[in-house]
Inverse folding.
């Protein structure tokens, strides 16, 4: 064997097919307002927002090892910033979403400096405490309705689009765009050398540190970027809900527990995992919606069974069986057959 | 000529346990230093002090003309230090090739195709190329030890630190590993090698140091050191006059 007989590739037949299928699916989804009903679009919009939240949590917990149970802090923060900026600042809602992201990043800096002093379970609890502090703080702001919350004025809602269907189409496209942007950013980041470093941290911090990877800085950057994007998604979520209250905005159940469920059953530490997890979560939710508390019990049972039978999630199970990868991230060293023929 | 690596009165203790006791030694560029000593003598701790995983309580460490005593381990690594771990620490979710790529792109500072070709070259040397696409978690012990070596080499080190890389291998495996390390040393890489398998060590190093209770017992020409009575007593547990 001679090194020159080898070449390194990152794509395979499967990834090429996945790109084509993904592009076709995206076009169909963009055209949803022309083929889907009002209720379906609403459901899909919600699904995309959960997909974005799950992909972000996966980047932070699955790759950077930052198991936060307090991401509702940024969802709620983003939601409240949308209300504050549009009501008091007169900012257009879409502009407010962007500003909410910037403010989310800024508030995440002191939070990170504080909670990065904690490790493992203490870190997780620390993030939850911070989220509670956020909730209690926003409940004190009487201009935003205090503990009972407030609604988005009609004038601001109208500024998005005059007609009801126009608003619905816009918020659907915004949700779809957020999911696509988040997944694409995660994918392109993971393909860079810093992304490779992040995967190394996921697998073994000791070895990663000994290879010159600045673990603290890498985690810090991931935490800040995740916070910023989560705040933007939060703003988008409450732009659709049109009403905000501290309990809804900082709900650990809605914005963290379900998100963790999605990532863990789908496959933590993979891009594909959150996508499969989101689809399964919504499938379960829609079929069991009328069953009340049974629905939550089924979710719990599904989580337990998958964690026992497939600790790496559904995607982990599929990947180990078929050596499959939809997003071309890994490297493959191939024997160069073209040179052997010479 | 100034020493390539110099430890000057380096001490470190955890409460009553002393892992380095006023440890001093010099290493010239291109030398290969073997380190032996009983279990718990402070050999791996010495590596941790050099690479920056442990901060010394007192003393000074100089590497390539720079005082690195307070430098972060990431920075030391990028200035040309690489180590292997006694207990292999693979990135088990990634392939052998990706493990190598991390070292080449991070510690080695290489990019794109340059890094890819370099990794293929090193994997060829360390005899892991045929397992390049294997997940690192699925390797045998020899494979994992070779992966430790591969990663350290992909970092393009000026100073290579090997921690008991021959431990637990069969005779044949050990011989082929020694040949690989010899070839690396032959290309001018400075090496510090901690090893219990003394005959493997003696085949490569040109200087030997004995450590016990965190301090240097002896240092010098390998064979002479091995035959000195105090080394026989401390390291092998044989009475000096026996």
């Amino acid at each position: 064997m001679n090194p020159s007989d080898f070449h390194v590739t990152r794509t395979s037949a499967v990834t090429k097919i996945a790109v084509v299928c993904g592009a076709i699916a995206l076009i169909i989804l963009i055209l949803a307002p022309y083929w889907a009903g009002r209720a379906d679009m609403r459901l899909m919009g919600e699904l995309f927002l959960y997909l974005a939240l799950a992909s972000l949590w996966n980047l932070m917990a699955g790759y950077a090892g930052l198991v936060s149970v307090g991401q509702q802090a940024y969802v709620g923060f983003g939601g409240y910033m949308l209300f504050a900026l549009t009501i008091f600042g007169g900012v257009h809602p879409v502009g407010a979403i962007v500003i909410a992201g910037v403010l989310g990043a800024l508030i995440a800096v002191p939070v990170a400096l504080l909670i990065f002093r904690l490790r493992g379970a203490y870190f997780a609890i620390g993030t939850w405490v911070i989220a509670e502090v956020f909730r209690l703080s926003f409940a004190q702001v009487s201009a935003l309705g205090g503990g009972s919350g407030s609604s988005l004025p009609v004038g601001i809602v109208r500024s998005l689009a005059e007609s009801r269907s126009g608003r619905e189409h816009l918020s659907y496209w915004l949700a779809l765009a957020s999911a696509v942007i988040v997944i694409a950013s995660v994918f392109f980041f993971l393909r860079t050398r810093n992304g490779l470093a992040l995967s190394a941290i996921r697998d073994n911090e000791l070895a990663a540190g000994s290879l010159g990877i600045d673990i603290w800085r890498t985690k810090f950057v991931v935490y800040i970027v995740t916070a910023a994007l989560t705040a933007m998604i939060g703003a988008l979520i409450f732009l659709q809900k049109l009403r905000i209250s501290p309990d809804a905005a900082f709900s650990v159940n809605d914005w963290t527990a379900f998100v963790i469920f999605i990532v863990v059953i789908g496959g933590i530490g993979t891009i594909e995992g959150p996508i499969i997890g989101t689809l399964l979560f919504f499938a379960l939710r829609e079929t069991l919606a009328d069953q009340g508390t049974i629905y939550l019990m089924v979710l719990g049972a599904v989580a337990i069974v998958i964690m026992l039978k497939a600790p790496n999630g559904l995607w982990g199970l599929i990947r180990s069986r078929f050596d499959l990868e939809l997003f071309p991230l890994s490297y493959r060293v191939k024997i160069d057959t073209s040179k052997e023929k010479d | 000529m100034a020493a390539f690596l110099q430890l000057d009165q380096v001490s470190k203790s955890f409460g009553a346990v002393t892992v380095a006791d006023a440890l001093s030694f010099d290493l010239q560029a291109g030398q290969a230093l073997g380190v032996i000593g009983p279990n718990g003598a402070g050999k791996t701790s010495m590596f941790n002090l050099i690479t920056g995983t442990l901060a010394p309580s007192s003393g000074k460490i100089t590497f390539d003309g720079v005082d690195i005593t307070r430098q972060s381990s990431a920075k030391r690594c990028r200035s040309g230090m690489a180590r292997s771990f006694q207990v292999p620490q693979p990135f088990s979710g990634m392939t052998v090739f990706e493990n190598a790529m991390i070292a080449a792109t991070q510690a080695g500072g290489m990019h794109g195709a340059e890094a890819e070709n370099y990794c293929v070259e090193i994997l060829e040397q360390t005899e892991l190329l045929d397992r390049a696409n294997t997940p690192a978690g699925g390797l045998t012990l020899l494979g994992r030890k070779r992966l430790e070596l591969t990663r350290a080499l992909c970092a393009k080190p000026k100073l290579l630190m090997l921690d008991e890389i021959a431990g637990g291998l069969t005779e044949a495996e050990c011989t082929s590993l020694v040949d690989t390390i010899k070839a690396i040393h032959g290309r001018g890489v400075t090496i510090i090698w901690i090893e219990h398998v003394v005959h493997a060590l003696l085949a490569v190093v040109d200087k030997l140091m004995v450590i016990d209770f965190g301090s240097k017992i002896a240092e010098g020409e390998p064979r002479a050191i091995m035959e000195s009575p105090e080394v026989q007593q401390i390291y092998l547990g044989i009475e000096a006059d026996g």
Chain A has one domain: 18-330. Residues 18-330 of chain A form a domain with the ABC transporter involved in vitamin B12 uptake, BtuC fold (CATH 1.10.3470).
